[in-house]
Design brief:
Elements: E1 9-13, E2 19-23, E3 32-35, E4 40-41, E5 46-54, E6 59-68, E7 89-92, E8 103-111, E9 121-130, E10 135-137, E11 141-144, H1 153-167
Length: 170
């Protein structure tokens, strides 16, 4: 038998083994998430972003969402036209496999180096959720979406042309 307790009070059980219990209901706080350092990237452009999440019971899921920061982008040459299909780039945040999910620090490691926004300005927002469906999120953080670095001028030019063709059909 299970019961849902919605307010503080007393529970009394009658019968042969009659008992009484005082119940104090505590409100469930929304989870929080924060960046736990600067975003890093390796030579191939794989990004790593540490974060810390907390909840009074447990964080059950999280998401990292990148939105293109058109106002901060250099809109010259191949980026002068309006971009097509600007959908946010999103990744699930890693959750601890074992241990306590009330407070933990993990690192999001993803490869966005082939995305059309690689090396362009974006705004990152982290969000987390608890089992009750309550959510917490960070304020948007302006950064450059990590991408691969090209030191050969010809390779860099080819990648720039690829980006421009993916930006818009115009």
């Amino acid at each position: 038998v299970s019961i849902e307790i919605v307010r503080s009070g007393r529970i009394e059980l009658s019968g042969g083994d009659a008992r009484s219990f005082a119940v104090n209901v505590l409100p469930d706080a929304a989870p929080t998430v924060s960046l736990a350092g600067d975003m890093g990237r390796d030579a191939e452009g794989v990004m790593s972003q540490p974060f810390t999440a907390t909840d009074d019971y447990a964080v059950v899921a999280g998401r990292a969402t990148f939105d293109l920061d058109l106002a901060a982008a250099d809109r010259s040459f191949g980026l002068a036209s309006e971009p097509e299909g600007i959908e946010p780039l999103a990744f699930d945040l890693p959750m601890p496999i074992t241990g306590d999910r009330r407070t933990f620090t993990e690192t999001l490691v993803e490869d966005a180096s082939k995305h059309v926004w690689a090396n362009l300005p974006v705004k990152l927002r982290l969000s987390v959720e608890d089992a009750a469906g309550q959510a917490g999120q960070t304020d948007p953080v302006a950064m450059t979406l990590p991408g691969r670095r090209f030191f050969d001028p010809i390779a860099a030019a080819v990648i720039e042309l690829r980006r421009d063709m993916l930006w818009t059909r115009a």
